Please model this.
Amino acid sequence: MTVWSFPTRIVFGDGSIEQIGTEATNLGAKKALIVADPGVVDAGIVATVEKALAEANVESVVFSDISSNPLESELSAATEAYRAAEADLVVAVGGGSPLDIGKLVRLMATHPSPVAQYDDAIGGDAKITGEVPPMIAVPTTAGTGSEVGRSGVVTVEATNRKTVVFSPKLLADVAILDPVLTVTMPPKMTAATGFDALTHCIEAYCATGDHPMCDAIALEGIRLAVSALDKVVSDARDLNARGAMMKSAMMGAVAFQKGLGACHSLAHPLSAESHLHHGLANALCLPAVLDFNRSAVPGRIAAIAKLLGVRADDEETLAFECAGAVRALRRKVGLPQGLEAAGVEESALPKLAALAMEDVCHQLNPRPCTEEDMLALYKASM
Model:
């Protein structure tokens, strides 16, 4: 039996952030904890959210001590802030990090510690049984799609490993997708987060399992990302392209309820150990993974290649050229062309490969992976 669901309410459009007060009131909220990162506070976005909530008579308190790869200690502090404020709503504003912490605050405010026991890799979702407070997700990047995802990621301090907590209970009640909120992203961040969205769509489409809705959504997400990514990198104020990237990010996260793959297992240790932005780590590893998976799902990789603009008539050629098309797009949007250029040393690769094997994402990769495969993929990505 397979269960398919797409339940999040999504409010999309330029200026849609103005609706957040109404959405909070509809959820019965009286006081919100706004979870954000320092960047969106400095950009004035949190002030806009506070004002809109206040106009709807919803009080708010801000927690913004969150890093780009959130830590267990930051989650604990945010949870304490939620309790101290006696809040009844979480409003998460920013990129994947504050959105993930916002989801996990709801879990830790209503379930016992530590968060490591809820690790999806050890079946921790079975322990997520209680109700959680409502949440409104407000993404200011177009990459993770966390606003519609049912997972949260945090680095557990005991293992220094990115840990994925997965449960439908973590879904936001409302996602507000306002392209205007993404225009302050600098080009490099726009490119990295955009590649995150693209990788989600590609890996979901190639993952094992039967989910026809996810497959269709993933393909459209790839098309949108390919059509818009270079435009938003070159013109930050192209709101049509910004909107397309927000849609692609959202669709990628919806699609990866089907699963992800080896690229994400490679990327997670690069963030935890080498401190690479997650989207950049995906961008650097994706071509090698596409080549690795080509023998297992040539038809799917050929379909991706067509969307990337590869011109060929036969499946074998299309699939062969797919990785090169990804590298060309990566170069076009100004990202580094390998792990070495991003500061990763070859001596670190064996440890990274061992950590990649511990990551659950590769279990749904279309071609099974060994630790030796992971090491070879890192080397191919240098």
